[in-house]
Amino acid sequence: MRMRCTTSSFEVDVSDELFRRPAASADYLKEKQDIQDLALRLGEAPAEVLPRFVELAMRRTGGVSAGLSIFEPDPAPGVFRWRHLIGELARFDDATTPRLDSPCGVTLDRARPVLMQHVERVYDWVAKAGITVPEVLLVPLFVGANEPIGTLWIVARTKGHFHGGHARIATDLASFVATALRVQRTEQQLQAALERSETLAHEMSHRVKNLFALVNTMIRFGARSATSKDDFAQSLSGRLLALASAHQLVLSGEATASPAELAHIIGSVIEAHQSEGGLRFALNGSAVSIRPQSISGVALVVNELVTNALKYGALASDEGTVVISWTTDENRLLMRWEERGGAAVEAPPERIGFGSRLLDSTIVRQFGGTLTYDWRREGVLVSIALPLSAVSAKAAAIGL
């Protein structure tokens, strides 16, 4: 804090004089009515509370101008923004002043009323604005014990105007307004939480309907293509577990609508099939956030690739491994599923099962992507390209 309070010919900070000056008798009934007026406005017209607060403070203390300096902490060290100005300085409404070189900054630091005279003589920005301040009374505004809102300031036309009674009146009004603002903020937070809950309930209802439709498709088409009852049960169980893992990822981020990292989605699906030393799968890719609406689809794709590798590919043997890698270009998420170390691939499979159709349906129809197979002798290479706009949380946020 840089505070220049005195020169050889004058003193700027005269706060000690506040309670040495004679004060007029207090009109407590009128002060009570002022508080009641503010309370009534808080319930019926909350937007009027702060302007009315400034008006009452100026009227009760006999000032010629008044306003609020609202503290804006970002970027540090912050500034004060002048709001709800009335009187001779009303033309400066919405102006900003520095946090570390201002009477308002001194007031917040002291957390008590401050009285200053001719601040334009030591604060250059006041002088440059052409403002003359014979005397100004400042009162801090806090929500709770430690959260500063800013200050109320009242300017007098002459030196020696303000006294301790004025400081008490302004402080009492400020204390009520701070309490009212805290109540108002709590109500706003509760309303926002209620709106989020309603949105979440609607979204979850939509997801559950989609989930039941997907499971119904799995049962109907999986039963047709299964070679036996055990084969059907095992395939369906794996798909449901993949959906459960994806659903858990969505639920874990519901409070903040958080996406999930692609590596985390893949890891949750392959975890049950990973070897004890973690050597069956190798993951290699940059950070890609998948939006919640796409998590289940991505998890199903990975699960189908795992299932095929366990039945017919590299993972059918103990020595087989899979390398899963991904990257992004300007508009696409590019994924590679590369199998190694299993039995030699002699030819592409003759039979196309439900799992392959599910892969095609999810990648092509749901996400608008492409899917290609390279049936290499050492193991199949699956290449997948998905539009970032369909799966990426970042791309969706910027409207790609």
UniProtKB/TrEMBL annotation:
GO molecular function: protein histidine kinase activity
Domain GAF: 45-191
Keyword Secreted: no
Enzyme class: transferase
EC assignment: 2.7.13.3
SMART domains, A to Z: GAF, HWE_HK
Reactions listed under catalytic activity: ATP + protein L-histidine = ADP + protein N-phospho-L-histidine
Protein name as catalogued: histidine kinase
Lineage, top ranks: Bacteria, Pseudomonadati, Pseudomonadota, Alphaproteobacteria, Hyphomicrobiales
PANTHER family: ETHYLENE RESPONSE SENSOR PROTEIN, TWO-COMPONENT SYSTEM SENSOR PROTEIN
Signal transduction histidine kinase HWE region domain boundaries: 203-287
Taxonomic superkingdom: Bacteria
Biological source species: Bosea eneae
InterPro entries per UniProt: GAF, GAF-like_dom_sf, HATPase_C_sf, Sig_transdc_His_kinase_HWE
Swiss-Prot/TrEMBL keywords: ATP-binding, Kinase, Nucleotide-binding, Phosphoprotein, Transferase
Bilayer-crossing regions: none
